[in-house]
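Propose amino acids for all 273 sites.
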């Protein structure tokens, strides 16, 4: 423990904001620069659900972030959904959805920042598979409005908070039959520490609360979903950042669907100056 504290104190004077500045799930107020484009790829795997309908499933998400003005960032991506394990009889792969979003950080200072994120997802995935939760490509139109706050008590230490509303449309369960996916409240909090200019360590509390307990025809009492997620991001070469996290479900509603989430990915920032 003493060695860790000493390392943090040594790193603090070096830590002009490092390139690994984002948390994994919680949105940060800091955005991609006006002359930059950020290319990313992330894999997520969801495992060990204890519910009757739980399956291992994966999501693969390439994406781009553009700095389009001071404090303005445009996000564009594609989500691919994989159900069950490759090589098993139940394995299926889908083009899930195309997420689009715009973030505006309208207030920023040395000690904090405020922003807003507006986004949506064009549904391309299957709506007739009852086990897909609304947080994944489930065939329903998704819209999001989220407030973003960030506190910066030191150059190497930040606290991030998100509070948002998620609108979910309807799923086509079968010809002529639809399921109205309940809307949800989003609440996330994260703490991150920069160790020098190349390493970020953090932990997040990620929460969703659906306005009805029946979130799909299969998951009928799963409204409250909370997860803790420690993570690390490393700049292994100039502008090339790799990331890893391991999430653990904390509420029964989420444990039914999955108890462990793994995340791996990378980003590369192109600077056009």
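Proposal:
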């Amino acid at each position: 423990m003493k060695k860790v504290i000493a390392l943090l104190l040594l790193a603090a004077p070096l830590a002009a904001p490092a390139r690994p500045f984002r948390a994994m799930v919680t949105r940060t107020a800091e955005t991609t620069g006006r002359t930059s484009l950020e290319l990313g790829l992330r894999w997520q795997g969801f495992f060990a659900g204890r519910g009757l309908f739980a399956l291992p499933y994966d999501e693969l998400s390439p994406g781009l972030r553009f700095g389009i003005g001071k404090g303005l960032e445009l996000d564009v991506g594609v989500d691919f959904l994989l159900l069950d394990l490759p090589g098993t009889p139940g394995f299926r792969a889908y083009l899930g959805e195309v997420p689009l979003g715009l973030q505006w950080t309208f207030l920023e200072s040395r000690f904090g920042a405020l922003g807003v994120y507006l986004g949506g997802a064009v549904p391309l995935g299957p709506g007739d598979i009852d086990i897909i939760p609304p947080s994944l490509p489930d065939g329903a139109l998704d819209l999001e409005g989220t407030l973003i706050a960030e506190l910066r008590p030191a150059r190497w230490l930040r606290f991030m908070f998100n509070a948002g509303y998620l609108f979910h449309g309807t799923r086509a369960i079968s010809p002529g039959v639809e399921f109205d996916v309940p809307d949800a409240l989003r609440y996330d909090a994260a703490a991150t520490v920069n160790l020098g200019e190349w390493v970020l360590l953090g932990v997040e509390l990620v929460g969703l609360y659906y306005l009805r307990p029946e979130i799909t025809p299969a998951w009928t009492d799963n409204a409250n979903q909370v997860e803790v997620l420690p993570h690390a991001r490393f700049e292994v070469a100039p502008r090339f950042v790799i990331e890893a996290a391991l999430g653990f479900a904390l509420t029964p509603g989420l444990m039914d669907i999955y108890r462990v989430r793994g995340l791996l990915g990378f980003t590369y920032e192109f600077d056009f100056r």
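The domain at 2-271 is CATH 2.40.160.40 (Porin). Residues 239 and 269 are 5 Å apart (CA to CA).
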